[in-house]
Design goal:
Strand content: under 5%
Shape: globular
Helix content: over 70%
Number of domains: 1
Number of strands: 2
Distance between the termini: 54 Å
Number of helices: 22
Length: 427
């Protein structure tokens, strides 16, 4: 019996490792491309990302919120950084000027987050993000992630066309993992994510050996603030700072969802400790050119897919990721995992996140009037996600990162509706 339990822990730990790795590795690579970093610097940021993400996840699970929830690069802030990087030529600022302004804004937001936690003001912040705002956030996050992973499954070529053979393999992986999850025995179902990644990787290597990703060491160059030194580009700082504060919604949504899934209600102290650590690591991240951290709400989808709620495998998985970051040959090997395979498997995992969002509406009765409470922010947010950012090109540059981010705008609209409309009268 003990050996069986140890085996489950071992496989669960590796499943967490693959999950965290797949959610982490693409972020520094995309930031490096957006800011035109040399390959040696991008490799350095990727190593820093793996090491810091593993440490942050371990400490959060051990002493922070104490849930098996990955502490990863914020999807909301990732989108803001990519948007600002891509608009650099149009606004007349260099990449280092924008990168330095972003770092200044994120560090300032991290300091404010630390102070909120240290001064025990978490309850006041929670009032800004009531349950309905969190429901809107979960719906929009599930849409945003599904869009990203669905597009990634298709193996889009440089000329913007779908790679049909790769897309068919991705579809096969999605069906394979879904069948394992729905029809497999408990042991098979719980490890469907890990099995899907390994089997998909093998088939990709066999069918597309000539296009299997290869990563050669570029003699990583270590440097502080690789995106740009701290500066006083006030417009960029304001955008980064506001987005950093909006990132607090991740913590409340993640812990609220985790408490429902695991059956262990989150205590005020857990919110406080979690925010403190998120603020701390969000201050450290810009120093290494990384996207700031947050409890990964998408981990809830992973938990629901695997039905494994034990913290021990999660903690081991986090430390394994740090170990991977310290050993360059292991990074080189894992970085050859095809992104399309990871996207296909994560697509299935994150379908569960939509269920979490849907379940959060239980107990709410909507009328033809009160339906605006959820429909307006969600549908506006989804609409903005599907509009090209170039449409807003004539608007002031400082408004564009907000208006082109459906997640931010949806949450802002939801907050305004909750604060200024008495929905009890309209129900």
């Amino acid at each position: 019996m003990k050996s069986l339990k140890d085996s489950v822990t071992l496989f669960s730990s590796f499943q967490w490792l693959f999950f965290i790795f797949a959610n982490t590795v693409v972020v520094p690579i995309s930031i490096g491309a957006a800011f035109h970093l040399p390959s040696s610097v991008t490799e350095m940021t990727m190593r820093s990302s793996l090491i810091l993400t593993g440490i942050a996840s371990f400490i959060q699970g051990w002493k922070g919120h104490k849930y098996p929830i990955m502490e990863g690069h914020s999807g909301l802030l990732w989108g803001v950084m990519l948007n600002l990087g891509l608009t650099a030529p149009a606004i007349g600022l260099s990449y280092t000027q924008i990168g330095g302004g972003i770092a200044t804004g994120f560090i300032a937001a991290g300091i404010v987050t630390l102070l909120l936690a240290a001064m025990n003001l978490v309850s006041y912040v929670q009032r800004i993000f009531p349950p309905m705002v969190m429901t809107v956030y979960l719906f929009l996050l599930s849409f945003q992630l599904i869009f990203v992973f669905f597009k990634g499954m298709l193996g889009i070529t440089e000329d913007g066309k779908m790679n049909l053979p790769v897309s068919l393999l991705s579809l096969g992986i999605v069906l394979f993992v879904s069948i394992l999850k729905i029809k497999g025995s408990k042991n098979i179902s719980n490890f469907s994510i890990l099995i899907g990644m390994i089997v998909g990787w093998i088939f990709y290597a066999i069918l597309f050996s000539d296009t299997t990703p290869k990563m050669e060491s570029a003699n990583a160059t270590f440097s502080l603030f690789p995106l740009g030194k701290l500066n006083l580009e006030f417009g960029i700082i304001a955008i980064a700072f506001f987005a950093g504060l909006m990132n607090l919604s991740n913590t409340f949504a993640s812990l609220q969802a985790a408490s429902e899934v695991t059956g262990n209600e989150a205590k005020p102290k857990q919110y406080r400790y979690s925010l403190f650590l998120t603020g701390l690591f969000s201050m450290i991240a810009p120093v290494f050119g990384l996207v700031p951290y947050t409890p990964f709400t998408s981990s809830i989808g992973f938990l629901q897919s695997t039905q494994l709620y034990d913290r021990k495998p999660f903690l081991i998985g986090g430390m394994l990721l740090t170990f991977v970051g310290l050993i360059p040959p292991i990074i080189t090997f894992l970085a050859t995992m095809p992104i399309t395979v990871g996207n296909a498997v994560l697509f299935v995992a994150y379908i569960q996140l939509f269920g979490t969002a849907f379940n959060s509406t239980k107990g709410q009765a909507f009328t033809s009037n009160s339906i605006f409470r959820i429909a307006a922010p969600v549908l506006v947010g989804v609409s903005l996600m599907n509009i090209s950012p170039t449409i807003f090109g004539d608007l002031p540059m400082y408004l564009q990162p907000f208006l082109t981010n459906g997640l931010i705008m949806g949450v802002i609209i939801s907050i305004m509706l909750e604060k200024f409309v008495n929905w009890d009268v309209l129900s």
